[in-house]
Amino acid sequence: MVVDDILAIRERWHTKRHPFFGALGEGKLPLRVLGIYMAMHWQFVQRALASFGILFTRTFSQEDVRKMIVENLAEEEGLKAIPREGHVPHDHGELIFRFCRAAGLSEPEVRAMKMTPAWWGRSLHYYQTALQEPIGVVL
Length: 139
Known about the structure:
globular, 71% helix, mainly alpha
């Protein structure tokens, strides 16, 4: 089955198998390395958020999907809390900047961070998927 093939590919290339994430799970990465990783993640999120605009436009006539996108963006931007007891709104970008500061990176350094080719690939894949794939695939 196609699903089994997809799952096999995912298992083979899953990030959990990458040495970086193994070291992360074992608590062996220096704080600065984690800061750089989060700075790259911030760069990715900037492009991912823009991709949500594309998805919103494509699904405007689908009320449930449209509202889900807005809800996700509101939570990401700190305008709405996750709907669970004890959760409060928090700006995810600000959380990233705070973490990076603790790891020795200033906000200007995070904003100026150049993404590696792998991060660019992930960002462009996300954008391309939002732009061209069937909505069911995007979701």
